[in-house]
Amino acid sequence: MHKFSTRRRFMALTGVGLLLGTRAGAQVVAPAIQRNISSFSAQRWQPHFASLRNGAILVDTVSRALHFWSEDQAVYKLYPTSVPQSEEMTRRGRTSIVRKVIGPTWRPTPSMLRRNPALPHVVGPGPQNPLGSHALYLGWQYFRIHGTQDERKIGRRSSSGCIGLYNRHIAELYGLTKVGTQVVLI
Question: Against a cut of 0.85, is the pTM above it?
Fold first, then answer.
């Protein structure tokens, strides 16, 4: 009904513009565009974790948001993310952080090399590294929460399976987490 009333209003204003002349119509037919700048909101940890032992990370692949709770509940953080390009590349379930690396080295997965044999086999730390400044390695092979050098990817389906954050956000999250932090991807 909202779209219909908006369309009806547009048509009515356009008609008024035609009756009054194009200049008046141009002034009238400039409806305000409403944009939702944040499609995600705060979550509670209780539906997803039995406790906050070692802290907890919830990644919501639908809203493209990462939630972090500290073990003592003193810290709650909410970050926008990039998520896998397709459902086939998306892994869901429970895991944990098994390793933390500042200045990670990137190696394409075997499936990435099959899709694009021209990829470099290794990219060291630096501005060309797709993992950004920091990486949190998960208990699943090839899956990480990491930064990105290409910030246009955040908020989009743009990864080959990992969860991407702005470099400033992964640096902050890196400092808040430890090996053993619980992770749930939904």
Answer: no
